[in-house]
Amino acid sequence: MGTYRPRSTPGGPTSLGASRANTAPPQPFDGMQIHWKDGLPKDRAEDSTIEATLITSGLTSKFSAILRLNDGDLEATEEEMERIEEEGQAQAEKDAMVAQVGGGGPAGRALSQSAQVAASLRGQSQDEAKEGKASGEQPSG
């Protein structure tokens, strides 16, 4: 039998990569840092649901929840809190105007829903409650 000899390549003495033996090892970059994140992508819907649950149960503030959802970006969180406050004030003004006029909207729908709940507690159907209201009858009980 013959002796095994690896094939020579144009880049070096063997096909096993021995040609790289004469090169300098790679040097690390000075001052460069790599911050690795978790290998899995973030599920924003799940994160939002968790934060909403924490807010409604009183275990965190809106500010802290938004800060976590914004990956710790304080400036973006402060801007979002300002927008939320402005929208809340605008909605409160709108609701106050609707309540003064006595019309529909969220306040009117809430009053209508509470009347329906009260009627169901009294054992009346919605139609009976409406008829009693229209004729001015007082519920007996």
Gyration radius, in Å: 35 Å
| Range of strand content | under 5%
Terminal Cα span: 112 Å
Low-pLDDT residue intervals, each spanning 5 or more residues = none
Q: Tell me about the biggest sheet?
A: none
Percent helix: 40-55%
Give me the secondary-structure category: mainly alpha
Count of strand segments: 0
Q: Based on CA inertia axes, which overall geometry fits?
A: elongated
Give the SSE order as H and E letters. Answer: HHHHH
List the total number of helices. 5
Mean pLDDT: 74
Describe the structure.
The protein has 141 residues and is an all-alpha fold. The protein is 54% helix and 0% strand. It has five helices and no strands. The N and C termini lie far apart (112 Å).
Essential attributes:
141 residues; mainly alpha; 5 helices; 54% helix
Summarize the structure.
With 141 residues, this protein is mostly helical. The chain has helices at residues 44-56, 62-69, 74-101, 105-121, 126-135. The N and C termini lie far apart (112 Å).
Summarize the helices and strands and which ones pair or pack.
Elements: H1 44-56, H2 62-69, H3 74-101, H4 105-121, H5 126-135
